[in-house]
Amino acid sequence: MPIDVARATTAPPVRSEARWDERDVRLYHLALGAGVPETDPRELRYVHEGHERGLQVLPTFGVVAGGTGGVGFQVFDLPGVDIDLADVLHGGQEITVHRPLPAEARATAVTRVTDVHDKGAAAVIVQESTLLGEDGTPLITQRNQIFVRGAGGFGGDRGPSERLPAPERAPDLVLDLPTLRQQALLYRLTGDWNPLHADPAAARRAGHDRPILHGLCTFGMAVKAVTDRLLGADASAVTGCRTRFAGVFHPGETLRLRVWDTSDGYRLTATAADRDDAPVLTDALITARRPGGRDGRGVVPAAGPPVTTRRTR
Fold first, then answer.
1. Class assignment of domain 5-149?
2. 32, 90, 158, 252: which has the fewest C-beta neighbours closer than 10 Å?
3. Given CA atoms 43, 47, 51, 54 in this order, what sign does their dihedral have?
């Protein structure tokens, strides 16, 4: 059996070192498309260490902190888990921000499997990782859902659905984000070396006609876009974010975001605009501290018609 559920969920947490500096942060933001236009002060906050307000860090950087493809995606090294990369899909991601990530740090990731759900044809491993700062206090906690094809049917609990459908009204904001054809190659430099995102032969074996963009890259782009458009480009305002990865996205396509301002935060979906709005991200939510001290809960949705923005490189 590829997953020993009892062993996986009762094993002691795995502790690993995660170190990063300003170069890693700048590279991550550039891989998301930051720096356009190159003279925009808000964009320079993501990529220029000499900005008057300092280099800021999106909370989604935590998924690649340490340059190993993500401190929250270490399931292959955990006890009780013996699975093949070819059978794995990243199903969902959730991040809780305890305090803003510094631009340079030496931290510790504490990772464990909290649940293994039985979906019949597949198993879902729920992995939790908390990134601790040098003083031992938490920076972020992330939970990811990892689908393992062919590992289900062991008689376990199916687990909660955790769906978060979009509101049944027009979005308050629509954003079109173009991507580079080499964007997956750039994002790989943050530490996720899965050949699915670079090797055409590996992509074909997985059922795709060409390499696809990392789901965590599209998610990072979405969080950055909401931060820039609705939070005054202040990454420290984000208190949490989550999404479900619903479909593939190819480098060079346009990512279309639809955003709703709701009482529990900013809900959003992302689609591939070039392929009839094929789903990419669903069940997504970003919570934040709002201007005036409000925290993303109990906020009245924005009035008026939706705003559509077309961004070009």
1. alpha beta
2. 158
3. positive
